[in-house]
Write a structure and sequence with these properties.
36 strands; alpha/beta; single chain; 5 domains; Immunoglobulin-like; 8-stranded mixed sheet; 11 helices; Rossmann fold
Length: 705
Amino acid sequence: MGFLAPLMLIGITALAVPIAIHLIGRRRARVVKFAALDFLLATRRRTARKFRLREQLLLAVRAIACAAVAIALAKPYTSCVRKGPQVTRGPQAAVLVIDDSFAAGYLVDGKPWLRAATDEARRILTQLGPEAEIAIVRAAEGADHPTELTRDHLRLRDQLLTLEPTARPADTTRALARAAQLLAASSHVRKTVFLISLLARTGLRPDDPPWGKDGPALVVSDLRPGRMPNLAITSLRVDPDPGAASRGVAFDAEVGNFSDAASKVELSLAIADRVVARGALALGPGERKTKRFLAALPPGVRATDAQVALSGDGLAIDDRRWVRASLRDRVRVLIVDGDPRTVRHDDEVFYLEAALRPGDREDSGTSVRVITGEDLAGVEPRARGKAGAIDLDEFDVVILANVAALPTQRVNVLADWVRAGGGILVAPGDHVDPAAYDRTMLPLLPQSLRDPIDTTWGAPPEERDSRALHLVKWEADHPIFTPFSKAAPELADAKFFEISLLGPTTSPDRKVLARFTNGAAALVEASIGAGRTLLYTSTLDRDWNDLPIHPGFLPLMQQAVRHLARKHAAFGNTDHAVGSSVVLATGDLKKLEVRGPDGIGAVFEGDRIAGRSSVRFGRTDRPGVYRVIGTDQTGSTHERDELGFVVNVDARGSDLTPAPATALPPSGTGGAGTPADDARRIELWHALAAAVLLLLLVEGVLVQR
């Protein structure tokens, strides 16, 4: 405590005045012995005690009043630390940036942190006053932002009352950038951004500041609890487990400890909502470990959802993670080798067979049988038991690799098999005569063949690579290309020196899935009855291109045969983050319905699905299991297990480590901002003056009595 006029404290010496008056005015009683008054002595003693008490109270009140007058004239004051940001009332532009990421659901004293954040925002909204133009910007990743400031404070207050934590991580930097854009459009001189956030480092990007030195003033509300330990399941992967029989699967759950203290975690694995295994992990501060569970899928199902959960903590949304577990459907492939060689690596199908059965593993998901063109004479449907015959019904896909034109009878047999639901892939080569193909092979092709072109013909060796063609403009949403990114260097870097050109279309629903840099078709698809056909316009070996030695060849061939076979997607990670879009293959469906964990989804039918090989679903706002119900051309409706998927929260948002002060943008010149001194002076002399008046009133009452 301090005094603005300390010399006035000299007045405290006035305390001697009431004391002197009290001492001087005290009456001395004479002793008079009178026997008749002895019976009154007891009553007199009681009266004397009351009189002394009144005199003492009167002395104390007068002394305190004298001291209070002197101290009040000295103007005492004290100081305290300001709680919350300083808010200036009046005309101005302001944006409230509120963290509504899933971390805002962290329980503090039994309530979500976002509750305290919205209470603080409402307080600031009230203090800014009705003349302020304000906007509320949410800091969750992908949140919709307002387009302008408003004076409709009632509507803003309603927004705060209904605000709930999302399932997305924070993107505070983007929210601050949007706030700066809104304020830049305002004509007010005073411009302020009020940041109400947990200030997690994962939501701030110091290398991408939202504004420069001339930006708005930044006022930060410090509502973050002292400690925010968090445990989370950061990833979950499922793979086949050959050691656990045909239905065995292995689940690998990674758990992260985002705190500065060691912790022991209890985990449980549930398949189709039934707990089948439990385990524990001991984690050190900031450590991540993986726990493996071995289990088997329930009898009678080929695909189901599974989840791993840990014992609850302050943030529940990241304590559970889902995955889609399915048995791999084995694709049975018959490869017809049109150019067999005695040297293995020179064989036409050497690279193709290696791609379909990498490492010659039995658990590759593909069974392959290779025959020559002459062996096709013994290929027949329903030929089981016939000596020397190959039963087409035992295969899902037939690949004709550089096979010379077949007789009409063989073509009709293959065409009937494709119409019944089979898939066929045709690739040309030096043994393919386009004219002969036009005469007999058109029932198997989506488009007729023409003579090949050599893009490097006549070029010197040093210019050969520069004249090569490359794959471009592939249909990224098609199931064949889903493993690849948009750039996909594993495909785009391959060089094609010779390709077959195409003639007139032979199928009404023919579709080009990829092209070369000269515009020529590289991969063409069409339907033949209930089956599918693919035409690849270069060779499957290295005679015309070098794609087989690029990493994109293996997934391209595997996805192509699985697409032709209409089999389940390859076994692996089907995890999607909240807010991402999911590509769903439509196949022969005329209606497709997606249902999320909250029962809300979307329906694709009519023009939204007609003529499309896939659709894109983007309403993945909640973590959990998403089910897909399909209706085929016959009107049969059932759940499509192979299209079901799961959505999980982004593990980045589970790290609640606070960001350093340098990660925040500097407070600009757009307003008063936060004072450099957080202390606030509180003057006490007003209260002392009021106390003097009260003491004088008490003194008057005592005198009257």
